[in-house]
């Protein structure tokens, strides 16, 4: 049995784990991940959902030294004192400017730091990092409606390969653990520009539900629990 701690960006979560106040996207992400846990695991698991601002370094129910706990944040906004195996990685990716600077200096890749106006990439490359290595999903793009996303977005191979290489080098340099990561990027004057990395299946991953098998939330759970993933198939 796994003890699963799902951390979300919400104003309030009840003691029973009911999300009382959060965005529709967060509600869908939480539901999709809970479904993945149920469908991809034979044993019954303890699943606890907590708003990030309610986290404490240690409580009566959570002990960071207890290896039976799987901490599965679905938000980048975590208290700095909260301890879990990927805590440093989350802190690194939360510092967007510093991550971009590292990419510029070490990988010689153009980033959003070079753009004077406020800029965010509008594409996401899913990286399913298994114990055996990375698998790359089809690119996700913004939909026509606000806060909507579409998969797949057709990208030629000459644009895919630099993305694959960039994602691999970033995750490898940080010794990232298995899980789903989203590499956010865009274009300026047809030049590929790096934005940031999300170390969990963030809202754009919702586009994979019903489109990709397994979807990115199922992939995340399978990676975290060391289950094999043979292929990523677009329906």
CATH topology name of the largest domain: D-amino Acid Aminotransferase, Chain A, domain 1
Assign the CATH class of the largest domain: Alpha Beta
Which spans have pLDDT < 50 for at least 5 consecutive residues?
Answer: none
Q: Per the principal axes of the C-alpha atoms, what is the gross shape?
A: globular
Count of the domains: 2
Name the helicity range: 25-40%
- β-strand percent reads 25-35%
Let me know the average pLDDT.
91
Structural class: alpha+beta
Question: What series of H and E elements makes up the topology?
Answer: EEEHEEHHEEEEHEEEHE
Radius of gyration computed on alpha carbons: 17 Å
The CATH H-level homologous superfamily of the largest domain: ATP-grasp fold, B domain
Distance between the ends: 32 Å
Number of helices: 5
Number of DSSP E strands:
13
Describe the fold and architecture.
The chain is α+β, with helices and mostly antiparallel strands and 235 residues long. It folds into 2 domains: 1-85; 91-235, ATP-grasp fold, B domain (D-amino Acid Aminotransferase, Chain A, domain 1). The protein contains 5 helices and 13 strands. A hairpin with a 2-residue loop joins β6 (123-130) and β7. α1 crosses α5 (216-224). The longest helix is centred in the last third of the chain and has 17 residues, at 157-173. The radius of gyration is 17 Å and the shape is globular. The model has no long low-confidence stretch (mean pLDDT 91).
């Amino acid at each position: 049995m796994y003890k699963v701690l799902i951390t979300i960006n919400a104003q309030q979560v009840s003691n029973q784990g009911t999300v009382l106040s959060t965005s529709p996207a967060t509600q869908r992400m939480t539901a999709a991940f809970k479904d993945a846990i149920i469908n991809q695991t034979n044993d019954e698991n303890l699943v606890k959902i907590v708003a990030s601002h309610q986290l404490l370094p240690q409580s009566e129910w959570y002990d960071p030294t207890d290896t039976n706990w799987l901490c599965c944040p679905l938000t980048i906004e975590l208290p700095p004192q909260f301890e879990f195996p990927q805590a440093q990685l989350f802190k690194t990716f939360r510092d967007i400017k510093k991550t971009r600077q590292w990419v510029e200096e070490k990988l010689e890749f153009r980033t959003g730091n070079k753009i004077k106006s406020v800029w965010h990439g509008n594409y996401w490359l899913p990286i399913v990092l298994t114990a055996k290595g990375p698998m790359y999903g089809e690119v996700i793009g913004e939909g026509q409606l606000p806060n909507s996303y579409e998969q797949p977005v057709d990208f030629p191979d000459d644009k895919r390969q630099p993305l694959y290489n960039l994602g691999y080098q970033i995750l490898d340099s940080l010794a990232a653990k298995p899980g789903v990561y989203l590499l956010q990027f865009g274009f300026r004057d047809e030049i590929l520009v790096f934005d940031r990395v999300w170390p969990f299946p963030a809202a754009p991953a919702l586009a994979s539900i019903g489109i990709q098998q397994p979807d990115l939330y199922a992939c995340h759970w399978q990676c975290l629990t060391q289950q094999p993933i043979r292929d990523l198939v677009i329906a």
